[in-house]
Design a protein that fits this description.
Layout: H1 8-20, E1 29-32, H2 38-47, E2 56-59, H3 63-78, H4 87-105, H5 114-124
Parallel strand pairs: 1-2
């Protein structure tokens, strides 16, 4: 059985719903994978004036693979946790996991001393020292 192709008419309601959600801002750049249905849907949103004309569209082949690959470690750690009770605990836990992963990958700022490492962690966790 062959799955139906994704068309702009199928994608348009999803983009509209995402843009009208109360917690989102109007994006200045939209990064998508190379699905051919996305550009016509975005152009339709621009003609409907749901998006400004200046909105940049970046397309990258296999974008989802890159994102999923970078967040695989989060899934591996959070899956056994059976969810979070509140958004606050999810936010704090994920920030901690991301911070430790950034340190492990060498992406953190120069943390050659304990003091700079503590300052960096305070910045990551939005804490006031």
């Amino acid at each position: 059985m062959q799955l139906p192709l994704v068309t702009a008419t199928l994608v348009l309601p999803l983009f509209t719903k995402a843009l009208t959600s109360p917690h989102t801002q109007i994006p200045r750049v939209i990064t998508l994978d190379k699905n051919p249905a996305y550009p016509p849907a975005i152009q339709e949103l621009i003609t409907e004036k749901s998006l400004p004309k200046e909105t940049l569209i970046r397309q990258k082949k296999y974008l989802n693979n890159i994102v999923e690959q970078d967040h695989r470690f989060i899934k591996k750690i959070t899956k056994p946790m059976l969810g979070f009770k509140s958004f606050l605990t999810a936010d704090q836990t994920l920030k901690g996991i991301e911070a430790l992963h950034m340190i492990r990958k060498g992406q953190a700022d120069d943390n050659s001393t304990v003091l700079t490492a503590v300052e960096w962690l305070n910045k990551i966790f939005d804490l006031v020292a």
